[in-house]
Amino acid sequence: DKTKETKEKEELPPELQQYKGVWVFIEQVQNEVAPVSWELLGEGKKIANDLDIELSGIVLGFDAHDIAHEAISYGAEKVYLIDDPVVKNYRTRPYTEALVKLVNKYKPEIILLGATTLGRDLAGAVATELETGLTADCTILEVDHATRHLQQTRPAFGGNIMATILCKKHRPQMATVRPRVMEMPKQDRSKSGEVIEEEVHFDENNIKTEVLKIIEETKKAIYLDKADIIVAGGRGVGDKEGFELIKELADVLGGTVGASRAAVDAGWIPVEHQVGQTGTTVRPKLYIAAGISGAIQHLVGMERSDTIVAINNDSDASIFDVATYGIKGDLFEVLPPLIEEFKKE
Ligand code: FAD
């Protein structure tokens, strides 16, 4: 309704109406970019086009010019780069200071960051300094054309409802977005854009943390969010030994093992394998779910997979609602012949 729309538009004080542009924070750790940053450039492009504003990337690092140019190849029209040894490694203080300075100078309307450990820490600190709102862990972003509000949707109340949150009276509007939820855009190295180098004069005396040493992870990390093939087991797998069958199929397919929370809680498989709301969000090419019922908290973490194959002995199981292919049957009868067949390939 028009009166409501006009009223809502008026709610934004005139000084905040000058905020324009979508910014995506390009997260790097040791000059390796977190893929969620590229996913956000893809999503940011849609929002920027919708609102007819510019899409920019923000790169903080050292020796990071290549990253800035890569951001252009993923769709950024401009990249603001702070290339300084002080921001080589992530530390909350200098990163916050730098980002806040850039925001105060250029006044972006929207800032998106990945809901990673780093992104969550930085977003909270920046939003606090800017005294603006922040929605964490979004899974859907949409634009309301009339009011220019970003509709930030995220699971709430244990995943039982989806809450849409608006930042009505402050700018910029800030959101962190879960990795692998948004589609990865195609890279195009022929794209052109502008890299704008910014300088911030940091005072190391005011920075209370120092990176002394970077210790590489020794145990083989489980990169569920990067896997193209996931074979996941749930309570239906029965016990720890049952998971050997899941592992065997994953091995034969060159995939990674996933699990429902029920299987993790039962102690059959470590928590790093958990897929879902409180686990990892995945988007593989193939997701095989064996003995998983399809509770909403599991589905939010895997329903965007390209192809879903569900194996369950209960034809009413909710997992069949999101499955591309459903096999009704006992997983202990279905999986062994599948493993044998794939071994032949
Ligand atoms: P069940 O729901 O018990 O399903 C087992 C399925 O196996 C059944 O459908 C059954 O028909 C089938 N089955 C049994 N035997 C066989 C057989 N021999 N062959 C074939 N099929 C068989 N869950 C997650 O997975 N990830 C999360 O991140 C997560 N976060 C949560 C957060 C909160 C706040 C809450 C409240 C819950 C969360 N849960 C999460 C738990 C979720 O609600 C479910 O309890 C859980 O996903 C159920 O796991 P499941 O499907 O393995 O078990």
Write the layout of secondary structure elements.
Blueprint lengths: L1 H10 L10 E5 L1 E2 L2 E2 L1 H17 L3 E7 L3 H9 L4 E6 L8 H15 L3 E5 L2 H14 L3 E5 L1 E4 L6 E7 L4 E5 L7 E5 L16 E4 L31 E5 L8 H12 L2 E4 L1 H5 L20 E5 L5 H7 L4 E6 L6 H4 L2 E4 L2 H14 L1
Helix pairs in contact: 4-5, 6-10
The site of flavin-adenine dinucleotide has 30 residues, from helix 7, helix 8, strand 16 and helix 10.
Family: Belongs to the ETF alpha-subunit/FixB family.
Keywords: Electron transport, FAD, Flavoprotein, Iron, Iron-sulfur, Metal-binding, Transport
GO molecular function: electron transfer activity; flavin adenine dinucleotide binding; iron-sulfur cluster binding; metal ion binding
Describe the protein in words.
The protein is an alpha/beta fold. Helix content is 31%, strand content 23%. The chain contains 10 helices and 17 strands. It has helices spanning 2-11, 35-51, 65-73, 92-106, 117-130, 242-253, 261-265, 296-302, 319-322, 331-344; strands at 22-26, 28-29, 32-33, 55-61, 78-83, 110-114, 134-138, 140-143, 150-156, 161-165, 173-177, 194-197, 229-233, 256-259, 286-290, 307-312, 325-328. The strands form 4 sheets. It has a 7-stranded parallel sheet, with helices on both faces. Strand 9 and strand 10 (161-165) form a beta hairpin. Helix 4 (92-106) packs across helix 5. The relative contact order is 0.11. Flavin-adenine dinucleotide binds next to helix 7, helix 8, strand 16 and helix 10. The site of flavin-adenine dinucleotide has 30 residues, from helix 7, helix 8, strand 16 and helix 10. One of its GO terms (molecular function) is iron-sulfur cluster binding. Residues 1-13 are annotated as: Disordered. Residues 1-12 have a biased composition (Basic and acidic residues). Belongs to the ETF alpha-subunit/FixB family.
